[in-house]
Specification:
Distance between the termini of chain B: 177 Å
Number of helices of chain B: 5
Structural class of chain B: alpha+beta
Shape of chain A: elongated
Strand order of the largest sheet of chain B: 9-11-12-17-14-15-16-13-10
Strand content of chain A: over 45%
Largest sheet of chain B: 9 strands, antiparallel
Radius of gyration of chain A: 15 Å
Strand content of chain B: 25-35%
Distance between the termini of chain A: 24 Å
Order of helices and strands of chain B: EHEEEHEEEEHHHEEEEEEEEE
Strand order of the largest sheet of chain A: 1-9-8-4-5
Largest interface: A-B, 31 and 24 residues
Order of helices and strands of chain A: EEEEEEEHEE
Oligomer: heterodimer
Number of strands of chain A: 9
Largest sheet of chain A: 5 strands, mixed
Number of helices of chain A: 1
Structural class of chain A: mainly beta
Number of strands of chain B: 17
Radius of gyration of chain B: 75 Å
Chain lengths: ~110, ~400
């Protein structure tokens, strides 16, 4: 199944950082700065999702939520989009990873 | 170090966020890499000054420091040296202080320290005749006295300041207060009634309003005197108006001629024909003259030069040439009214100055030209002479 997103829907995607060796969530600390950006096929930034760390990292270990308001997704165009998630610690970028999804037209639009 | 991956919980259709983890359409696992926890500046330190170990213990030499205890020994020696030096300084300082104190000592003169050797604060009260004589720059701590005003000052740094507000000294100048006992006496005097000084008008210099004196009253000009009616003088009248009224009354009196019946005048009689005596003679005094008028009734013939009436009253005597007895004084005409004619007669008035013979002063009347027959004779009002 491909990841799809309909134009004009609210963009809210839970993401978990976890230790792949123990398969346990990796608690997000205050030193860890997580940012995200979504670009279209032309590498144009179409959104910078709001990153919210789940407040209770003891129960929702490693969980964050990426959100883009409808006011912006309403303007997206059909096509492939890439969402980049970046982790920084002490001012240095530690890791960055892209997730690809496809923007499709909503029938109601 | 930890190997990190991401789980992306994706839903192709919108569902509530809290359901997306459990009911996600797609979970995307993405390797994210290894996470190494170490200082941001670099890797772990395992070797210092040639020592290599996971745990390195450095000594004083490794860091270029003195060996343990060396500093303590130095401190002890330094403290000892400091104490010794301090004692030496104190000893020398005490001796020097004594020497200096003795060299600057004040020598007694007759057992008294001369004033010029005393410090300023000892001579701290100085007197001046006036604050104007204070030195331009004073000394703090001194008391300056203005003996004229009995006020004390101190030097405030820039000017002299009265001490304790300065108060107000007794005196009789603008800067002093007056004695209370004298002030009370003056106040009591101000409340006294009457004339406590026994002042008379003679003690007061005259201004525009002059004193009352007899001479001034006598010489007072009757300015504003106006004509008044000869009415009664009232208590409310002004003096000048009263005088005007008197003047008017006198004028009326002067204008009036009071005729008196001869019968009512003391000393008057008709000598020969008293009974019946229908005669009606009247006399009046006016302007210093004696006037006569009236009627005579002659009941029987009276020869000429026979006295017809007499008035022995000195108040009715008139001047004659010599004022001698029976000396001719005056004459007047009178008339007999007949049915067909008027007869003219002349009556002489004498001055009966014959006191030695019992004749009193006054006048006597004689018809000197003809005898008078029976009948009525008219005497027109006329002046018969000047009253004496």
């Amino acid at each position: 199944m491909n990841a799809l997103f309909k134009i004009g829907d609210s963009f809210a995607v839970p993401v978990q950082f976890y230790n792949s060796e123990t398969n346990q969530g990796l608690a997000i600390t205050s030193e860890m700065i997580i940012t995200s950006r979504i670009v279209n096929a032309l590498n144009q930034t179409i959104a910078e999702p709001i990153v919210t760390v789940y407040p209770n990292q003891a129960t929702d270990t490693g969980m964050i939520l990426l959100e883009v308001p409808v006011s912006k997704t309403y303007l997206w165009k059909e096509g492939i989009a890439l969402m980049d998630i970046k982790l920084s610690m002490n001012g240095n970028i530690r890791h960055s990873q892209n997730i690809s999804f496809k923007i499709v037209r909503s029938i109601t639009i | 170090m930890s190997n990190i991956s991401l789980k992306v919980f994706w839903n192709n259709s919108p569902i509530p966020v809290f359901q997306k983890v459990q009911d996600s359409d797609l979970v995307i696992n993405v390797p994210f890499g290894a996470l190494i926890t170490h200082p941001a500046s670099g890797g772990a330190i395992y070797s210092i000054n040639g020592k290599t170990s996971s745990t390195i213990i450095l000594n004083a030499e490794d860091i270029g420091a003195e060996t343990k205890g060396a500093v303590e020994q130095v401190e002890k020696k330094l403290n000892q040296a400091t104490n010794d030096l301090s004692n030496q300084i104190n000893t020398k300082a005490s001796a020097l202080a004594v020497t200096q104190a003795l060299s600057n000592k004040a020598d007694l003169v007759n057992g008294i320290i001369p004033a010029n050797l005393l410090p300023s604060f000892v001579d701290d009260v100085v007197e001046f005749n006036s604050w104007n004589e204070f030195p331009p720059t004073g000394d703090a701590g001194k008391i300056y006295i203005d003996i004229t005003e009995n006020k004390t000052y101190r030097w405030g740094g820039n000017s002299y300041i009265t001490i304790g507000g300065g108060g107000v000294a007794l005196g009789e100048t603008a800067a002093t207060a007056y004695r209370g006992d004298r002030g009370k006496a003056a106040y009591d005097h101000s409340l006294s009634q009457g004339n406590p000084h026994g002042t008379t008008t003679s003690d007061i210099i005259e201004g525009n309003r002059l004193y009352f004196t007899d001479e001034r009253v006598t010489n007072t000009v009757l300015a504003g005197l106006s004509t008044q009616q000869p009415t009664q003088i009232l208590s409310t009248d002004k003096l000048i108006d009263a005088l005007a009224k008197l003047q008017a009354q006198n004028k009326v009196k002067a204008d009036e001629t009071v005729w008196l019946n001869m019968a009512s005048i003391e000393g008057a009689s008709f000598r020969l024909f008293e009974t019946p005596a229908p005669s009606y003679l009247q006399f009046a005094k006016k302007d210093g003259n004696l006037w006569i008028r009236g009627w005579l009734y002659i009941s029987s013939t009276i020869p000429a030069n026979v006295m017809i009436f007499r008035l022995y009253n000195q108040g009715y005597a008139i001047e004659t040439l010599l004022n001698l007895y029976s000396y001719f004084g005056s004459s007047f005409n009178f008339y007999k009214l007949n049915p067909t004619n008027v007869e003219k007669f002349t009556m002489c008035v004498n001055y009966p100055n014959d006191v030695s013979n019992g004749v009193k002063f006054g006048i006597e009347g004689y018809c000197i030209d003809n005898s008078l027959t029976t009948g009525h004779y008219n005497i027109p009002a006329q002046c018969i002479g000047k009253l004496i």
